[in-house]
Design a protein that fits this description.
This protein is about 65% helix and about 0% strand. It contains nine helices and no strands.
Length: about 210
Amino acid sequence: MMIVMSDKKARPRARRAPSSRKEETHERIVEVASRAIRRSGYAGTGVADIMKEAGLTHGGFYAHFASREALLAEAADRAGAEAVRVSADIAAAAGPGKALQALLQAYLSQQHMEAVELGCPVSALGSEMHRQAPEVRHVATRHIKEMIDLVARQLPNWGTPEAHEQAVFMVSSMIGAMVMARAVDDPALSRTLRESALKYLSGGTK
């Protein structure tokens, strides 16, 4: 899953226009929450803070969501869908034979590393996901599978079990490298982690 929502190669996804003020407000809450969970983590994201950032009162929350877990699931779904969409846009813009390299470079970039709240929700939240409610884990699982499938489709042997296995390895390596690059407080090591992953994963794009 991927990259940075402000990436110039990405096309904004056309969303159905909200049919009511309530739907518009609901969309705003989910958008704020999708960024907040990546920025602060699931545990660090409170309903009151999300509602305040959305310009709303805490008391209005239950007019839109049955529970905090329902909001987190919808926010995770939004973040994951956007990440896969941006990845697909980057692949499409790169052209034949260059899509996978473009995906790797974008994911392991300095821009993605710094833009936590706009990037891949798995590398931002992966260590917390196993503690979340089933509905939150379900949407994360679905988008991870979509990302693996997207990478597999860029491989020359797409459609084979080997391509799927290689895509699983590449996606997990990309995510792991980004998690480690963000974890360390040594900028040189952070850069080396990302550049080394890019170097060795790029061998699978040829």
